[in-house]
Each structure stands twice: as structure tokens, then as C-alpha cells.
Amino acid sequence: MIETQIARISSPLLYSSRLMLRPFTLDDAPALFSWSSDPEVTAYLRFCVHESIKESRSVISRWMKSALHPPFFHWAIEKRDTQQVIGSIGIEIMSLHDNRGELGYCLTKSAWNCGYATEAVKTVLQFALERGGFHRLEACHAENNIASGRVMEKAGMHREAGPLHHYYRSDILGYQNVYMYAITEEQSTWS
Description:
The protein is an alpha+beta fold. The two termini are 28 Å apart. It has one domain: Gcn5-related N-acetyltransferase (GNAT) (Aminopeptidase). It has an eight-stranded mixed sheet, with helices on both faces. 27% of the residues lie in helices and 33% in strands.
């Protein structure tokens, strides 16, 4: 197998005008728990609602261990002015051979409708396509989660498919019909 650039790197610190994207630490467990325990925030997501801060701490511990063995891309979304962690964003490697990944993100309710999700997604897309070695990034949103689709569009992604019937399963709502968005190196506006 040919080693790709993706395999040689891990999550660097990333900055935008209002945000810093950085690896999670165990000190972030209360923040993670605050949105991961909220069924309204996690309704469309593919993980169980956290039942305790201990569970959030355990998840962060797994992320920290995974970060020691690239490729692994997962960041805490932190507001630069207050150092408040307001969400998470990451890329799951779908194919090292094809340099393809799937983007996912989640923000606490108090950070909704402030442009933070779009800013974080743009920052990660720019890193991934310019320096991260990715050729293509995909993201999906549930048919009823229209706000997430707007984030993807504002960040420069293009809708390619959908609705795809029962494409993924939300632990709260069950199987979801989704729209798939994607962006490739040649579609990016940063190059």
C-alpha cells in the first residue's frame, strides 16, 4: 500500500478569526457533556446521548489515545476570546487509498446561529484540502436537519446526492434519510 500524506500527520492547532480548533483534553469533559447530554443537540447524531461526565471523560480518553497513532483528526472548537469550548469537529478517514474522509461536527445550543459551525467547517476543509493530504471530503445531514445543510453550503461544499434512504442511524431518531455534500481539491477556493 502506498503511504499517503494523511497517514503521516495528526490534528494541528487551527485558527480562524473567532475560533481555535485544538485537541481535546480531559478538562473539556464538562463542556463535552453539556452538549452530548442534550437530546436536542444530539438528535441527528450517530452517538448515544452521554449519561454522565464520566462517560464524556472516557470518550475524550479514547480520542487522546487515538491521536497518538495518526491518522486521527478531531478537534475541540474553542472561542478565542473566552476560551470556552462550544463544540467538536472531526474527519473520519473513509479511504486512505483515495485520500477521502467524512466530516462531522456538533455545537452546543448556545452557539447555534452565530456562524461558528460554518467558520469551523471552513477552517477544517481548508486544512484538509491544502495541507492535510485529502483529495475529497464528504458530509451528510439528515433530511430534517436543514440548518446543517446550510452550514455545508456556506463552507463551500456541494450537494451531490439525496435523499439517500436510511443512510445512517441516529441513536435517538433511528434510520435517517440524508443528503450528501462533498468538496474536492479542485473545487476548493483556497488553492
